Amino acid sequence: MRLFNALCKEKDSGFSLLEITIVILIIAILGAIVSPSFINLYNVNKVNEAIDKTKGAIQEAQNQAIRYGRRCQIRVINKAQTTKYGTPAEHPTIESVAPTSTPSATAPKEESCLLNGDRTLPGIALAGHTTPWIISFDFKGRTSDVANNGTLILSIPDTPKPQKCLVISQGLGMVRTGDYEGTNCNTSR
Predict the structure, then answer these.
(1) Pfam families under this entry (predicted)?
(2) Residue 8 counted as domain residue
(3) Are the C-beta atoms of residues 156 and 47 closer than 8 Å to each other?
(4) Residue-number span of the structural domain to which 76 is assigned
């Protein structure tokens, strides 16, 4: 029995170099097949997060204008343009512009239109509207200036897809988002 156990232990002492090489080769092939899907999934999530940040900032400024009964302005700037601090932006940024009204009883101090602070969009390219784009809301949350209207296209730099768009309408200041395909912004949501 000892002889049998000794022979079995010798054969079951591990994997051969050929077996390890085959397993590593299979894992490498599967990784090469799956990695483009994961990269695309990451890019889609990054653009969706950026469009949500942008829409949230615009709606936050609109809500602050209604809440305090004053004009609220935000500015969308692209990479390398000057921020309100006089420095070039490293990433596309959404920042609050200084309030234009005087303090009142409901808004005793000059507050930013973006309570959660300025938003940066790292790794995102902006297109569609000339930047810096100043979006202004009146005390009822409306946009009256034609310059406030427009479409902003967000995408990953040097990548054709995914592209998302954000549209602000004149008058009511409605904000819609959708997919940008070709030259059209399909805002179904």
Answers:
(1) N_methyl
(2) no
(3) yes
(4) 15-186
116 domain residue, yes or no = yes
Which token pair is 104? 């009142």
Two structure tokens written together for 74? 């935000």
Six-digit token pair at 92? 């596309």
What is the pLDDT tens value at each position of the chain, 189 positions in all? 565 565 555 556 778 899 999 999 999 999 899 888 888 888 889 999 999 999 999 999 999 999 988 888 888 888 766 666 666 667 888 888 876 545 444 444 456 888 888 888 888 888 877 768 888 888 888 887 766 678 888 888 877 778 888 888 877 888 888 888 888 888 875
What SS3 class is residue 78?
coil
Count of domains observed in the chain: 1
What is the distance between the alpha carbons of residues 179 and 187, in angstroms, rounded to a whole number? 7
In the structure encoding, which two tokens stand for residue 48, read together? 């969706």
Task: Determine the Cα–Cα distance for residues 126 and 92; give it in Å rounded to an integer.
Answer: 7
d(CA 173, CA 112): 19
Closest to 76 (Cα-Cα) out of 138, 118, 139, 137:
118
Question: For residue 119, which phi and psi values (nearest 5 degrees)?
Answer: -110, 135
- How far is residue 166's CA from residue 154's CA, in Å, rounded to a whole number? 8
Q: Do the domain assignments include residue 3?
A: no
Tell me the CATH number at 129. Answer: 3.55.40.10
Which residues are CB-neighbours of 183 under 8 A, at least 6 positions away?
A: none
